[in-house]
Design brief:
The chain is built from 17 helices and twelve strands. It is of the alpha/beta class. The longest helix has 23 residues, at about 290-310. The protein binds pyridoxal-5'-phosphate (PLP). Pyridoxal-5'-phosphate binds near residues 199 and 222.
């Protein structure tokens, strides 16, 4: 069934929102999802803080570190449904995932389980750790199209065994941009005594996250994606019973002195991105987070239907958009695979020749585009992508 077109895109939350960001207006930027983008005002606060720290490096990095980090920790923790003393700052979700994987002892025969939608860096980290410890990396396919979230649960539970030590699952998947039912999966894991690491790289900001309520063992998420914090701002949470066992990748002075203390000090580093991460959350408060979420979800859903219709392709997720957040992955016209050597070649062409920034990727043997929707995006940008892709497909 092809997606029904026709509904209108959401109204922007304010006039000229793009001017609040530093993004180049000459580029049709449909890839907020990869690295986020920092609003001008936040960038100014970030640079000002870096300058303040550089004026008195020892005073700030040593004696006043708590002053730099505590307000941000409190703000971010409240936003994510975490106790502040359970929130460890990390540089990115990759680091959060690695901190967990490298802290746990796996043994010969243990299984580390995830799905075919896993982010490639996480796939590598899991299989690397499995190789190091004699454990086995297991990746269960969840083929597209997905008709209901329970398909993900069924695929994973069908491969859970007495040997499964850790399940890793994305809260929002990277290649396919789908919201996975992590709460249901957490209940399934708990019932079997299996630990669950939720990769929430895209979740903060996009979803109304309540980490404590998920019921998982470990959770990590980026603030530099959908909260628009400066790059290098992310969070790791660990359930109380495991908190003492998980250490940062860089073990440093405060080993064994508490989760927060260990993660706050991972050697000398720039803490400005962590420190202004609370201000990133406040940046969106002027619009109201509920309004931001409603706008971005509606824009992604509208863009999804538009692209499916214009390209005459099947949706890869439920047509009611129940698994879509601020991104949508849409199959591309099949002719493109005959005209370009690889998805990356086509992505580069779109950028170099058309000034459109959008990820193009292969999944299940088919080529897809993943579009993002952030407050600064406008419906015309997706219309433009639709037409340009058709031209390159020779239609
Ligand atoms: C699902 C998922 N996990 C992990 C990451 C890694 O994020 P980072 O590069 O910030 O570590 C990403 C990045 O896009 C992702 O989509």
């Amino acid at each position: 069934m092809l997606a029904a077109a026709g509904s209108s895109p959401p109204a922007p939350l304010a006039e000229d929102l793009a001017s609040l960001w530093l993004l180049d207006p000459a580029v049709t930027f449909l890839n907020h999802g990869s690295f986020g983008a920092v609003p001008r005002a936040l960038r100014t606060a970030f640079v000002a803080l870096q300058e303040r720290i550089e004026a008195e490096p020892v005073e700030f990095i040593d004696r006043r570190l708590g002053e730099l980090l505590t307000p941000a920790r409190t703000r971010v923790a409240t936003f994510l449904g975490i106790e502040p003393d359970a929130l460890g700052f990390v540089t990115n979700a990759t680091e959060g995932v690695n901190a967990v994987l490298r802290s746990l002892d796996f043994a010969q025969g243990d299984e580390l389980l995830t799905t075919s939608h896993v982010y490639n860096a996480v796939r590598n980290a899991m299989s690397y750790r499995a190789r190091q410890t004699g454990a086995t990396y297991v990746e269960v396919p969840v083929p597209l199209p997905i008709r209901e979230p329970l398909e993900v649960v069924r695929a994973l539970t069908s491969r859970m065994t007495a040997r499964t030590r850790l399940v890793v699952v994305d809260q929002v998947t990277s290649p396919t941009a789908l919201i996975f039912p992590v709460e249901t999966l957490a209940a399934e894991c708990r019932a079997r005594g299996i630990e669950l690491l939720v990769d929430g790289a895209h979740a903060p900001g996009m979803l109304d996250v309540d980490v404590d309520a998920i019921g998982c063992t470990y959770w990590t998420g980026n603030l530099h994606k959908w909260c628009c914090a400066p790059k290098g701002a992310a969070v790791l949470w660990v359930a109380p019973e495991r908190r003492g066992d998980i250490h940062p990748l860089a073990v440093s002075h405060f080993l064994g002195e508490g989760f927060v203390k260990e993660f706050d000090w991972q050697g000398t580093r720039d803490v400005a991105a962590w420190s202004v991460s609370g201000q990133a959350i406040e940046f969106f408060e002027r619009f109201g987070w509920e309004n931001v979420r409603a706008h971005n979800r509606a824009l992604a859903a509208w863009a999804h239907d538009l692209l499916c219709e214009r390209w005459q392709v099947e949706p890869v997720s439920p047509p009611e958009h129940t698994m879509l957040g601020f991104m949508a992955t849409v199959r591309l016209p099949h002719e493109l695979a005959q005209r370009f050597a690889t998805p990356l070649d086509f992505q580069k062409t779109l950028y170099a020749r058309e000034r459109i920034e959008v990820p193009i990727l292969a999944f299940d043997g088919r080529w897809h585009a993943r579009v993002s929707a952030q407050l600064y995006n406008r419906p015309e940008e997706y219309e433009r992508l639709a037409g340009v892709v058709l031209r390159h497909a020779g239609r």
